[in-house]
Amino acid sequence: MKLSKRSYQSVILILIAIMLVLAGCGNSSSSSGSSADTNSADAGTPTAGGELVWALAGVVTNDILDAHRTGFAPSTRVMRSIYDSLVVELPDHTFGPWLAESWSLSDDKKSYTFKLRQDVKFHDGTPFNAEAVKFNFDRAVDPATQSYLGKNALGPYVSTDVIDEYTVKVNFSSTFAPFLSNVAKVDLGIVSPAAVKKYGETFPQNPVGTGPFKLGKVVPGTELDLVRNEDYNWAPSGSKHQGPAYLEKLTIKYVAEDATRLSVLQSGQADVADIIPPQNLLALRADSGFNVQETELLQHNYSYYFNQNKEPWNDINVRKAVRAAIDLDSAIKTVYLGTAKQAWSPLSPHSLYYTSTVENTWKYDPDFANKTLDELGWVKGDDGIRVKDGKRLSMEFLDAQGNREKRLDLLAVVTQQLKQVGIELKLLTLPAGTVSERSLKGEYDFAGSSQFYGDPSILRQMYSTKGPSGVNNVARTSDPALEDLLEQANAELDSSKRQELYKKIQEYIIENVYSIPTYVLDYTVASSKKVHDITFDSPAWPVFYDAWIKQ
Amino acid sequence: MSIVSNSISSDAALPLAAQRKRRKLRLRKVTFPQLYITASLVYLLFLLVSAITPQLLTHYSPTAMNASELLQSPSLQHWLGTDHFGRDLWTVLVYGSRQSLLLGVVSVLIGGIAGLLLGLVAGYFGGIVDTLLMRLTDILMTIPGTLLAIVIAVAIGPTFFNVILAISISTIPSKARVIRSTVISLRSRMYVDAAKAIGTSHLQIMLRHILPGCWSPLLVMTTIGVGTSILAGTGLSFLGLGVIKEIPDWGYLLSEGRSYMTVAWWIAAFPGLFITLLVVAFNLLGDELRDRLDPKK
Predict the structure, then answer these.
(1) Tell me, what's the pLDDT at A221?
(2) Is B294 buried (19+), middle (13-18) or exposed (0-12) by CB count in 10 A?
(3) Which residues on A lie below 8 Å from B256 (Cβ)?
(4) pLDDT at residue B143, rounded to an integer
(5) Whole-number Å distance between alpha carbons of A355 and A352
(6) Looking at chain A, which residues constitute the CATH 3.40.190.10 domain(s)?
(7) Is the ipTM reported for this complex over the cut 0.85?
(8) What does each C-alpha distance from B67 to A280, A330, B262, B269 come to in angstroms?
(9) Which residue among A150, A247, A331, B48 is least enclosed by CB atoms within 10 Å?
């Protein structure tokens, strides 16, 4: 504890040094370049070879590279390069062949028959065939696998029949509209049956798929290398080339820290960085040294939910008043610096099932909020917070995720806005275990959540007691009329009829304030100018199969 | 500087010649140590004022978010610039000082009292009591203080009181150790033996004869400890284990500002500076106290 005279001098010297460093940072920021075309320009012929370093926003703990087991976004982004799917969902939401050459629906519309490619091999050399597909689907629904997303993605799955070596029939107990969209996702990516049997419990550390890259070296907690699968010749339709990937090696470094990820990219230690925070996005867009790709993530938008099992949030008028008290437009502009749009529906605008009829159906109206709450008997107390029958109009918001996507910043602005009309919002930061425990018990008032998912059937999970979350859906919504619509839409195979159903559902959710959608999330990837042709899958994760580096 | 001007005004009654003479003397007397002690005191006084009556130091509101004034660099209007919510950074820092100071002072008090009791009992009774208590502090000492605070904050959840508790607990072992050694040297003094001989109770001896001797090391340790505790508290906030309040504390602001370093350096720089100065000030004062209270001098 004791500091000598000399240490004071060194303390002061260190302080001066810190100031100089800070001053340096300030200068370098203001010099970022002139405007430039951020879209990938015509770059000529792709060249094969080279190593691409990707600074990943997040840490992939190496035990969760099992396609069927994890729903953890950073893992999912990495696994897209390791595992292939039976079909691919193209940007126009149609489906193209991948590991399956073709498929057909049975007459009762409850079974899908897939004709598989015959030239596909797993990374371990074992052949991909009908048995492998059966193994994968049976594994995803097996409780022992502890799959969450994979199991949900199969819905009313019954069984898979092996018709011949390269033909499988997947049977459901009822018609299941989301199937093709779900089977295109990594959550139902095809894993090697031989590797699963060989590695058993350690398979998540030794992922084996059929993808364009296979697992190379792993440094736990730091980085993970993927090396090119030289045998690869079964790229999905819509790809820009055939045969093996261009890149020899894809090095994925975990850089969860925003500022560090940016400097790693800017200093050239990484060629690609994803999830760029708004304040840096603005600068990078204007920087001629980098490409910025922004793709709307297909998902259930980050939304606020009321716990409708608790008074007074079961009253639609209170919910409407709270919604009118929030000035989302200004909050989103403040927090995301104009890089994000306001969401009007739970679904992403790029979803095939999005309806624009919900846009501008409510607005920021503090007078309405005040009037409604006054009429309901909530009177402002001494501290400015409304009180009724001795109960304060106060909401508890549980959080365990920290300021991801600046959600706590958004909440901070919303808290101030709610205070203006006499509503108190208390943020409780708790360990993840405590949060899920309290959420299950329903000990919260207000919650926020998002879920990346291409198919609109995600709404069934979030608002129906019949969905995978059941009575514990985050809004505790229990509305037979809505559930009926959701079940119908889940089984409706006709796209236009399904669109009509989801239009009704979105309008219904917004009308009844079952949630308050907040912002539309763009998944962002920034790369140095020499990197070309990074593409995106559905819901929006990067695909490096076509990517190449200009030598 | 302030010393010089103060001395002039207080000497106003003296004749001019005498004043000049004294002034010369005083000027020569102002040495580097005195300067930094004064500077530390002035800074702490400023923090005390800002913790008690922040509205005296700024006319902005610490919670007023202004979408049209985001991330502005320091200017005459906003001395330290604005943060990512468009709040005046100076105002946020001034209002945030209350939480930081409260955390430092309260956790040091709790840790100090607990450490004092432990050290007093262990040192006075010796033997098995001493062994048990000291092994207990040994165990606590094997875990680095910050890590211990993090573990406690994660385990029981980050409320303001829990954070204080976590930091207090992590400071107990070192305090208990020092007090114990002081007590051991005191208990063999003649006057303690004398007190024992006339049948004074243990409690009386501890309170009347030994405790007074512990004050000076405790005072030094707590003064320095306030700085370290605040640092630990801001550290926890920085790691996201602190309490997120309407008015952010310095550590949280620093952590938030970190991701804006390349576009708005001031959001992280000034909280960092405030924290650094605070810790340095408390350390300097603690050191000065130690010198003054040292019986060998």
Answers:
(1) 87
(2) exposed
(3) 403, 409
(4) 84
(5) 9
(6) 22-58+212-297+522-551
(7) no
(8) 18, 7, 20, 22
(9) B48
The SS3 assignment for A449 reads strand
- Nearest-5° angle of CA A538, CA A544, CA A547? 125
- DSSP-derived 3-state class of residue B259: coil
Give per-residue pLDDT as tens, B100-117: 889 889 999 999 999 999
- DSSP letters spanning A498-539: HHHHHHHHHHHHHHTTS-EEEEEPEEEEEEETTEE--EE-SS
Output the DSSP codes for A335-379. Answer: HHTTSSEEP-SSB-TTSTT--GGGTTSS---HHHHHHHHHHTT-E
pLDDT at B45 over 80: yes
Tell me how far apart the alpha carbons of residues A516 and A332 are, in angstroms, rounded to a whole number: 14
If you average pLDDT over residues A146-157, what whole number do you get? Answer: 88
CA distance B96 to chain A (A): 16
* Chain B residues with CB-CB distance to A29 below 8 A: 262-263, 265
Contacts of B158 in chain A (CB under 8 A): 429-430
Cα separation of B206 and B214, whole Å? 10
Nearest by Cα to A204 from A32, A79, A120? A79
Task: Search chain B and give the residue with CA nearest A23.
Answer: B265
Q: Which residues of chain A are in CATH 3.90.76.10 domains?
A: 84-197
- Burial environment of residue B138 by CB neighbours within 10 A (0 to 12, 13 to 18, 19 or more): exposed
Which residues make beta-bridge pairs with A524? Answer: A294
Fold classification of A22-58+212-297+522-551 (topology level) = D-Maltodextrin-Binding Protein; domain 2 (3.40.190)
Partners of residue B34 on adjacent β-strands: none
Which residues in A499-522 are b (16+ Cβ under 10 Å) and which e? bebbbbbbebbbebbbbbbbbbbb
Q: In this structure, which amino acid lies at residue A398?
A: L
B65 in A contact zone (CB under 8 Å)? yes
Predicted confidence band of residue B3 (pLDDT cuts 50, 70, 90): very low
Region B81-97: mean pLDDT is 93
What's the whole-model pTM score?
0.82
Q: What distance lies between CA A175 and its chain's CA centroid? A: 26
For chain B, what are the domain ranges?
A: 52-293
Neighbours of A21 (CB within 10 A): 12
Q: Do B283 and A3 touch (CB under 8 A)?
A: yes
CATH of domain A300-520: 3.10.105.10
CATH 1.10.3720.10 fits B52-293, yes or no: yes
CB contact under 8 A, A330 and B67: yes
Helix (H, G, I), strand (E, B) or coil at A490: helix
Give the CA distances from residue A45 to residues A36, A221, A528, A534, in Å, rounded to whole numbers and listed in that order.
Answer: 22, 36, 17, 15
Q: Which of A26, A282, A416 sits opposite B65 (nearest CB)?
A: A416
DSSP A82-131: T---SEEE-TTS-EEESSEEEEEE-TTSSEEEEEEPSS-B-TTSPBP-HH
pLDDT at B5 over 50: no
CA dist B225 and A85 (Å) reads 59
CA A395/CA A426 separation, integer angstroms = 6
Contact partners, residue B51, CB within 8 Å, separation at least 6: B97, B98, B101, B102
**CA distances (Å), A22 to each of A27, B82, B140, in order?**
9, 17, 37
What's CA B228's distance to the chain center, in Å?
A: 6
Q: Which two tokens stand for residue B61?
A: 């509101």
Q: With contacts defined as CB-CB under 8 Å, which chain A residues touch B228?
A: 1
- The two structure tokens encoding residue A423: 């509503």
pLDDT at B145: 77
Q: How is domain A84-197 classified at the CATH fold level?
A: Dipeptide-binding Protein; domain 1 (3.90.76)
Mutate to test the interface with B, among A6, A18, A22, A410 (most CBs of B within 10 A): A22
Distance CA A326, CA A415 (A): 9
Q: Is A303 helix (H, G, I), strand (E, B) or coil?
A: strand
